[in-house]
Design a protein that fits this description.
The chain is α+β, with helices and mostly antiparallel strands and 447 residues long. Helices cover 34% and strands 28% of the residues. Strand 9 and strand 10 form a beta hairpin. The termini are far apart.
Length: 447
Amino acid sequence: MFSRILVAARGEIALRIIRACKELGIETVAVYSEADRTSIYTRIADEAICIGPSAGSESYLNIPSIIAAAEIADVEAIHPGYGFLSEISHFAEVCESSNISFIGPSPAAMELMGNKSRARGLVKSCDVPIVPGSEGNVGSEEEALAVAHEIGFPVMVKASSGGGGRGMRLARNDISLRNAFNLARTEAAAAFGDDSVYLEKVVVEARHVEVQILGDHYGNIISLGERDCSLQRRHQKLIEESPCPSIDDAARKAISEAAVKIAKSAGYYGAGTVEFLVDRSSNFHFIEMNCRIQVEHPVTEMVTGIDIIKEQLRIASGHKLRIKQDDVVNRGVAIECRINAEDPYDNFRPTPGKVTAYYAPGGPGVRVDSHLYSGYVVPSAYDSLVAKLIVHRNNRREAVACMKRALEEYIIEGIKTTIPLYLEIFGHSAFLSGKVDTNFIDTEFSG
């Protein structure tokens, strides 16, 4: 096991990683930007090093600064968390060339699965269904139109190196496709430094279901079950739960087996998530694989009892998986709400600023992953996620009741958050019956 690692992340996930390391007896070195100087994770780590100004490009995305910090701090490995450098294969390669272990998959697997159009080709060779779309990248409006006419509208233009809902545009006809094609390319270039895009047919009334996998360096790969991530706004996940309330055991088994098959074909190790769209008939189609820890990993931890961050650390240090597929038993229902510093009634406008009062909910079945405290100033330079509220109970009805109670208890003053919206959602009949799809929030709660 490693004795000392650097955490190249910020906010709640940095704190989450540090806590797992402490329980394993691993020393931690945090890095922070000027904007995060007062963040709580910098105090809980064994050491903290400033790596630059507030702008992500000059701090958390600055590979030379992070490698320099790692070398100065004499660490054995780097955990990238999620976001920033977590899915950048070049960063993993630099870590390797610097004799520092990268806590994640191999650069080759990241390169393969990180390029969405190449990943589609791999999955197709595995005989796993994919959403109909272009064979690879589309390089012009005319090529995009030809593909769209072949597979049928509506279509989604998607960044090949994308993630997190960026570089994605919906098109319902020729005119909107021309516009979507150019906007998606512009967004993709700005967000990922790669303007290549591909097309997928839109699956109507689909649910977004993903499978958490773990793999070691010895070819052992297991599924930890699925999560339903259908509650989204403009392709950004807001609420997740496990298990998915709308699929039966046969579909659940099939989708998990497909995820493991894909990961094995990619030569994958570490923690990863294989994502699918599931239609009304429980037919599933691969959409992408995320080569990192997910924001929503806690719901899987709650239903399986497996600490995914600790497993990442063990795998990266060379241990074989301690868990076999038959050992994975999912118990109860877990739900997560992403608490964002946004005003849901003003088109989700970001609301950075000072937290004047803070009280986190508790009680049986409640978990809060957050770096907030009273007096903390939420910076404007980064993503608006400030907390994750997770509940775990025996069944979905109890989990929903527990979440409503916890949301009502949660006090965050000084900034606006998405908590009031979630209270509305948890009272909506369609959500309570589990009959929602990826368009539910945009349709019912347009803001």
